[in-house]
Write a structure and sequence with these properties.
Blueprint lengths: L9 H7 L41 H14 L3 E5 L2 H12 L5 E5 L4 H10 L6 E5 L4 H7 L4 E7 L11 H10 L3 E5 L4 H4 L9 E5 L13 E5 L2 H14 L5 H11 L2 H21 L3 E5 L9 H7 L6 E6 L3 H10 L4 E2 L9 E3 L20 E5 L5 H12 L1
Parallel strand pairs: 2-3, 2-4, 4-5, 5-6, 10-11
Antiparallel strand pairs: 1-7, 6-7, 8-9, 9-12, 11-12
Helix pairs in contact: 1-2, 2-9, 3-8, 10-13, 12-13
Bound molecules: pyridoxal-5'-phosphate.
């Protein structure tokens, strides 16, 4: 048995899966293969299977193998952004006349993709409360091909019961697609609960340093993985080699970062729940959260994302965001630095007037891995 046949834990896979030392130089880190084309040894004589970097690139292959290993899937695929991954998946699994069930709480850009782009291609969707499995069952139609969920969801931190939803989707001949961006595979592996495809914005925790935009899909089944790969090449929204390398580097520390994000978030939640200016804290780690028991069953810890509602309404919430200093006011999430934002006016502005509209008094924080006392002091002063 070689060392690579030994059973491997998550952190070992994060550092090594798909990343053998470079056979030519022994470089322990996968090189950035910044190249578009590859010399052939005679027509069709490919060395290592590479012919053109839209189809495949060695740095991207390393990332894709690592993604598949971390999510426990058959095939990982890396894209130029989370939305590029979503678009490629949807146009692989849906055709005009098909129907998909989507959540009533999701990233605004995901909703925009369904509502403004896919409907123009003849795809129908229904919005359901995916945090209650029975509501999803009621929304299923004879032409439903997929159920799409985020858990925890963005920005309301709702929890979906993946095992229950897999049963409902599969019973109706549909796929279960899970956006695992908020949890990351370190905290939750949806395929183990029956998901067919896992979606990531690798821009977030996977990259982890706010220096790259990327997306990923992991298919549980090799056949579906092949179909998506065909569309990835046909549609071309691939991750470039440097971006793939940045995500690969970020993933090596995912486990330790997620541990710290989660423990810092718990302390932030403790402060917020006691604060008189906060009317509600949304965090699946709270025993009173409606999805707490399900989250405890399917997540290793509750993650670094926290949302809260500010007593005093929209302007008071905006003021909290404006006053924060160490919590940087900005979109996105999942980096080592803490971020704060007003979803209604920022990340979820595109959901205004839709069933996914978010409360106006909502503030979302991405709790980073800075010293916790500094984070708590900043929130105290921002709340005023
Ligand atoms: C949960 C979730 N899914 C998908 C996306 C889209 O990813 P990207 O911005 O990388 O296209 C985002 C972006 O914020 C997100 O938060």
């Amino acid at each position: 048995m070689t060392e690579h046949q030994l059973p491997q834990g998550f952190e070992t896979l994060a550092i090594h899966a798909g990343q053998e030392a470079d056979p030519q130089t022994g470089a322990v880190v996968t090189p950035i293969y910044q190249v578009s084309t590859y010399k052939q040894d005679g027509v069709g004589g490919l060395r290592g299977g590479y012919e053109y970097s839209r189809s495949a690139n060695p740095t991207r292959t390393a990332l894709e193998e690592c993604l598949a290993a971390l999510e426990g899937g058959a095939r990982g695929l890396a894209f130029a952004s989370g939305l590029a991954a979503e678009d490629t998946l949807l146009r692989t699994i849906l055709k005009p006349g098909d129907h998909i069930v989507i959540p009533n709480d999701a990233y605004g850009g995901t909703f925009r993709l369904f509502a403004k782009v896919l409907t123009r291609w003849g795809v129908e969707f229904s919005v359901a409360d995916t945090h209650h499995a029975e509501k999803v069952r009621e929304a299923m139609r004879p032409n439903t091909r997929a159920v799409w969920v985020e858990t925890p969801s963005n920005p309301l931190l709702g929890i979906a019961d993946l095992a229950a939803l897999a049963e409902i989707a599969h019973g109706a001949g549909a796929l279960l697609v899970v956006d695992n961006t908020f949890a990351s595979p370190y905290l939750q592996q949806p395929i183990a609960f029956g998901a067919d495809v896992v979606v990531h914005s690798t821009t977030k925790y996977m990259g982890g340093h706010s220096d790259v935009v990327g997306g990923a899909l992991v298919a549980a089944d090799a056949g579906l993985g092949e179909e998506i790969m065909y569309h990835q090449n046909a549609m071309g929204a691939v991750s470039g080699p440097f971006d793939a390398w940045l995500v690969l580097r970020g993933i090596k520390t995912l486990g330790v970062r997620m541990d710290r994000h989660s423990s810092n978030a718990e302390k932030v939640v403790e402060l917020l729940t006691k604060h008189p200016k906060v009317s509600q804290v949304l965090y699946p780690g709270l025993p009173g959260h409606p999805g707490h028991d399900v989250a405890a069953k399917q997540m290793k810890a509750f993650g670094g994302m926290v949302s809260f509602r500010v007593a005093g309404g929209e302007e008071a919430a905006v003021e909290v965001c404006n006053r924060a200093k160490l919590f940087t006011l900005g979109e996105s999430l999942g980096g080592v630095e803490s971020l704060i934002e007003h979803p209604g006016r920022m990340t979820h502005a595109s959901a205004a007037g839709s069933p996914l509209e978010v409360p106006a008094d909502l503030v979302r924080v991405s709790v980073g891995i800075e010293s916790i006392d500094d984070l708590l002091a900043d929130l105290e002063q921002a709340l005023g």
